[in-house]
Specification:
The complex is a heterodimer of chains A (about 400) and B (about 375). Chain A has about 400 residues and is mainly β. Chain A has four helices and 23 strands. Chain A is about 10% helix and about 40% strand. In chain A, strands 4, 6, 9, 11, 12 and 13 form a six-stranded antiparallel beta sheet that branches. Chain A has a five-stranded antiparallel beta sheet with strand order 3-16-21-18-19. In chain A, strands 8-7-10-5-14 form a five-stranded antiparallel beta sheet, with no helix packed on it. In chain A, β12 and β13 form a beta hairpin. By secondary structure, chain B is mainly beta. Chain B is built from two helices and 20 strands. In chain B, the strands form two sheets. In chain B, strands 2-3-4-6-7-8-9-12-13-15-16-18-19-20 form a 14-stranded antiparallel beta barrel. A two-stranded antiparallel sheet of chain B has the order 14-17. In chain B, a hairpin with a 5-residue loop joins β8 and β9. Chain B starts with a helix and ends with a strand. The chains are: A mainly beta (about 400), B mainly beta (about 375). β1 of chain A pairs parallel with β5 of chain B, so a sheet runs across the interface.
Chain lengths: ~400, ~375
C-alpha cells in the first residue's frame, strides 16, 4: 500500500469513526418541537363490578398476628394460648443439677407485642386459665366462661411507652388449677382491661412466636446435697384469638379482612384501548365507604390489591403479587379509600389472557378484627377507577 | 488490494446509517429532506445534480454509464442553532447518505443503476419542560421525544441513448426505512409513573421518475426530469398512522463548458410538498419548495489524464415544513475537490459546505463534510 493510500484510508476511517452522533437538544415549543403531541388524559371510569367475598383462606390460628381488643369498642377479642406439654423432668440443660423436679414454683408467660394503640394509658392484660382444648372451631362464646375472676391467674400493666416489645408476667404454679403432674400443659387466655378502648397485637409466627412459657423449678444439685432453683422454657402448641360476633356489623357490601380473613373480588370492566393501547401513568381505585371502617379502635391496617392470574372464583390464583397495590386504612374512617393500582395496569397491558379481576385482602390476613367493606352490587356509591393515561404518540398521517 | 478498494472498505466499516444530516427543521413533517447527490455534485452546490451520472436526481443520466461503476459517500455535519431563547451548540451527526452501483446491461443498449439515498431524515432527540394540571394539581412535566432513523429512497433506473446527443432514462423508487421512536414523560409528583413509549416506525412508498439529458453542442447540456411520489405509508408497532402524500418534483438543469477545464452548471427543482398538508398534524405547515444550485468546476488536464479540480458552488433551497407560517430556507456555500486513483479506475471526492438555515424563529448554521469514492472495477 502506498503512503498516499495510507493517508486516504486514515482520512476515510476518521470520517466515520471520529464523529459520534450528538443530537440531544432542548426543544423550543411549539415552533421547534417534534410533530405529534404527548398527551396525558385523566378520566373517571365506572364499571367496577363486585363479584363476591370469600373466607377460609387463612384462619386466626394460622395468622401471623393475633389481636386482643378490649371493651369499650365495637367488639372484643381475646387471645388463647396452649403450651406444648412440658417434660416431667427439668429440661434446662444445666448439667450441674439433677433433672428430677422436686417442686414447680412458678410460671412465666412472655408475650411478643408488636403493636398497640397509642395515647391510651392504663391498659392491663389479664391472664386467665383456660382449658387445653381450644382449636380452630373454638368460639368467643365457648371461652367466655373461662374469663371470670375465678380463672384469673395474673395481670400485667402495659407500660404507656410500650409500642413494640416483649412483656412477661410471672405467677405461682399453684394459681393454675389444672397444671400438675398429670397435665404438664398450660392454657392461658389473654384479655384487655382498660378504661378506654384499646387493643394489643401479638406476634404469632415462627420467627416471632406469640409467647413462651418459662417454668421455675426446684431441683437437687448433681451431688444431691443442695436444692437449687432452675428454669426451662416451653413453646406454644396452639394459639388463636376469638372475637365477640355480637359487635360485628352486618355487611352491606363485600367484606375484606376480619378474623375470618375474608377476601373481596372485584371485576374491572375497562375500555380495552386504555388497557392495551395506552400507557397508564396513574390508576386509582376509589372505594367509597359503605359504613365506617370496622376494627380495633385507634388501629390502622393495610389493604392489598392484587390481580388474578386466572378467574376461577374464590380459588383463583393471583398473578405476580409485585404488581399489586397497597393502601393504609384507618379504623373508624368514613372517607373514600383510594388505592393505587397503576402497576396492575402495567401487568394487564398487552396481556389479554389475564382477567381484569382484582382481589382485596387485609395484610396480615386473619390477624385482626379490622375489616374493610367494599361497595356491593347496587350500591348507591359504587366504586370507580380514576385513570391517568398517555395515548400513543400521534404520528404524521394519523 | 487496491488503495481505492481499501478506502471503500474502511468507509463501510465506519458506523452510520443511510441517512443525511439532521436539522432543527427536521423535527416536523416527515423529516428533513435529503439530497440524492454524490459528493462531487454536492461540492458544486448541487448545480450538476441533473447531469451527474453518479447522482440519483435525473434517471436520464443513467444512459451515460458505459462501464460498471460503484460509488458511495459519507458525511458528517457539525451544527448549532438558536431557537427562541435557546442556543444549542456542538451537535454532530455522521451518516452514509448515498450509494450507487451501475453500468451497461450486457448485449443491450441499456444502462442501469441502482442506488440508495436519503429521502428524509428523522433523527432528533428533544427534551422539553412544561406544566400540566392533573387531578387538580399542577405538575411539572419533562418530555423527551427521540427519533433515530429516516426514510430511504431505493432507486432502480434504466437509461439508453436513442441518439448520441440524447440520454433518456426512467426509474422506479421504493421508499422504505424506519425510525426508532422514543417518547417519554416524567412528572414532578412520584404519584405518577414516568412513562416511555418505544416504537419502531416504518415507512413505505413508491415513486416513478423519468428524465432526459440533451447535448446540443459540446459546450451546452440541458437536462430535465420529473418525479411523481406516491403516498408514504407510516406504520408503527402500536398503530397504523396512515399515509402522507408526497410531492411531484420537476427538475431542470443547464451546464456550460465554454472552454476545456471550466464548466458551469445550474440545477433547479420545484417540489409540491404542500400536497402533504392535509395529512400533517396541526400546527405543522407544508410548503412547496424551490431548490436552486449552481456550481463551477475548474480543472487543468494533465498529461496522464489526472487532475485536481477546484469545485465551488452555492445552493439555495426552501424547506418544506414548519410549525409556523413562515417557510424556512437554507443557503449553502460549497467547495471541494477530487483525486483520481488507480490510473483512473477510482476517484476520491471531498466536499465541504457551510450552510445556514433560517426562518420560523430559528437560525441554524454549520458545516457539512462529505467524502465520496467511486470505483470502476
Amino acid at each position: 500500500m502506498t503512503r498516499r493510500a495510507g493517508v486516504i484510508v486514515a482520512v476515510a476511517a476518521a470520517a466515520g469513526w471520529g464523529c459520534q452522533d450528538i443530537v440531544s437538544a432542548p426543544g423550543v415549543c411549539p415552533e421547534f418541537c417534534p410533530e405529534g403531541e404527548i398527551r396525558v388524559v385523566d378520566t373517571l371510569l365506572t364499571g367496577v363490578e363486585p363479584v363476591g367475598s370469600y373466607t377460609g383462606y387463612l384462619l386466626p390460628h394460622e395468622a401471623r398476628q393475633m389481636q386482643v381488643v378490649g371493651p369499650g369498642g365495637p367488639t372484643e377479642s381475646r387471645a388463647l394460648l396452649v403450651s406444648i406439654s412440658m417434660n416431667a423432668r427439668y429440661a434446662g440443660g444445666d448439667t450441674t443439677v439433677r433433672d428430677s423436679i422436686i417442686q414447680t414454683d412458678s410460671l412465666s408467660v412472655r408475650l411478643n407485642i408488636v403493636r398497640r394503640n397509642a395515647g391510651v394509658s392504663g391498659v392491663t392484660l389479664a391472664f386467665h386459665e383456660i382449658p387445653l382444648t381450644p382449636d380452630s372451631a373454638t368460639t368467643y362464646g365457648d371461652m367466655t366462661p373461662y374469663f371470670q375472676d375465678s380463672t384469673l391467674v395474673a395481670t400485667l400493666q402495659v407500660p404507656d411507652s410500650l409500642v413494640k416489645d416483649t412483656l412477661s408476667v410471672t405467677f405461682p404454679a399453684a394459681a393454675l388449677r389444672h397444671f400438675g403432674p398429670d397435665t404438664l400443659q398450660v392454657g392461658i387466655g389473654v384479655r384487655i382491661v382498660s378504661p378506654e378502648p384499646a387493643f394489643v397485637t401479638v406476634a404469632s409466627d415462627t420467627i416471632a412466636p406469640a409467647a413462651l412459657i418459662r417454668r421455675f423449678v426446684q431441683v437437687d444439685s448433681s451431688t444431691g446435697t443442695t436444692r437449687v432453683t432452675r428454669s426451662d422454657t416451653w413453646g406454644i402448641r396452639f394459639r388463636t384469638f376469638v372475637v365477640d360476633p355480637g359487635g360485628i356489623p352486618s355487611p352491606v357490601g363485600l367484606t375484606v379482612g376480619g378474623a375470618t380473613g375474608a377476601r373481596g373480588f372485584v371485576k374491572l370492566n375497562l375500555p380495552g384501548f386504555i388497557v392495551d393501547s395506552t400507557l397508564v401513568v396513574r390508576a386509582t381505585l376509589l372505594l367509597p365507604a359503605t359504613q365506617p371502617v370496622f376494627g380495633a379502635p385507634g388501629d390502622t391496617f393495610s389493604v392489598r390489591v392484587v390481580a388474578l392470574g386466572s378467574d376461577f372464583g374464590p380459588k383463583s390464583p393471583v398473578a405476580d403479587t409485585s404488581f399489586g397495590g397497597t393502601v393504609r386504612v384507618a379504623v373508624g374512617g368514613s372517607d373514600t379509600v383510594a388505592v393505587d393500582i397503576t402497576r396492575i395496569f402495567a401487568l394487564w397491558r398487552g396481556n389479554a389472557a389475564v382477567p381484569r379481576t382484582v382481589m382485596f385482602q387485609v395484610e396480615p390476613e386473619a390477624a385482626s378484627i379490622n375489616t374493610l367493606e367494599l361497595p356491593g352490587q347496587g350500591s348507591a356509591t359504587p366504586a370507580a377507577i380514576r385513570v391517568t393515561y398517555a395515548p400513543p404518540f400521534r404520528l404524521p398521517g394519523s | 488490494m487496491r488503495p481505492a478498494a481499501i478506502v471503500v472498505v474502511a468507509m463501510l466499516m465506519a458506523p452510520g446509517s443511510a441517512a443525511a444530516q439532521n436539522s432543527v427543521y427536521g423535527l416536523v413533517g416527515i423529516g428533513f429532506p435529503g439530497d440524492p447527490l454524490a459528493t462531487r455534485a454536492r461540492s458544486l452546490g448541487g448545480g450538476t445534480g441533473a447531469f451527474d451520472i453518479m447522482s440519483a436526481l435525473n434517471p436520464g443520466t443513467v444512459a451515460g454509464l458505459g462501464r460498471l461503476v460503484a460509488g458511495g459517500a459519507a458525511g458528517t455535519s457539525l451544527r448549532r442553532y438558536t431557537a427562541g431563547d435557546s442556543t444549542v451548540t456542538g451537535l454532530r451527526e455522521t451518516r452514509f447518505p448515498f450509494g450507487l452501483f451501475g453500468g451497461r446491461v450486457p448485449n443491450t443498449p441499456l444502462s442501469f443503476a441502482v442506488s440508495f439515498s436519503t429521502y428524509a431524515e428523522r433523527t432528533y432527540d428533544v427534551t422539553t419542560t412544561g406544566t400540566q394540571v392533573l387531578r387538580g394539581d399542577t405538575l411539572t412535566v419533562t418530555d423527551r421525544v427521540a427519533s433515530d432513523g429516516g426514510i430511504t429512497d431505493f432507486r432502480g433506473a434504466l437509461g439508453f441513448r436513442p441518439w448520441p446527443r440524447v440520454l433518456i432514462g426512467g426509474a422506479f423508487h421504493l421508499l422504505g426505512g424506519s425510525s426508532r421512536l422514543m417518547v417519554g414523560r416524567t412528572f414532578s409528583s412520584p404519584d405518577y409513573s414516568p412513562y416511555i413509549e418505544r416504537n419502531q416506525v416504518t415507512f413505505a412508498g413508491t415513486s416513478v421518475s423519468g428524465g432526459i439529458v440533451l447535448l446540443p453542442t459540446s459546450a451546452i447540456e440541458l437536462a430535465a426530469s420529473a418525479r411523481v411520489d406516491g403516498d408514504l405509508e407510516i406504520r408503527s408497532e402500536t398503530q397504523t398512522a396512515g399515509a402522507v402524500r408526497l410531492p411531484v418534483s420537476l427538475i431542470g438543469g443547464l451546464r456550460l463548458t465554454p472552454v476545456a477545464g471550466l464548466s458551469l452548471a445550474a440545477t433547479a427543482a420545484r417540489r409540491s410538498w404542500s400536497r402533504s398538508q392535509p395529512d400533517l398534524i396541526s400546527p405543522t405547515q407544508a410548503f412547496d419548495t424551490w431548490e436552486i444550485g449552481t456550481g463551477l468546476e475548474l480543472s487543468r488536464p494533465q498529461a496522464r489524464g489526472a487532475s485536481v479540480p477546484i469545485r465551488l458552488g452555492y445552493r439555495y433551497r426552501q424547506l418544506p415544513f414548519s410549525n409556523v407560517v413562515t417557510q424556512p430556507t437554507e443557503t449553502a456555500f460549497t467547495g471541494g475537490t477530487g483525486l483520481l486513483l488507480g490510473g483512473g479506475r477510482a476517484s476520491l471526492d471531498a466536499s465541504v459546505e457551510r450552510f445556514h438555515r433560517s426562518g420560523g424563529g430559528a437560525d441554524e448554521e454549520g458545516w457539512y463534510f462529505s467524502l465520496g469514492v467511486i470505483i470502476i472495477p
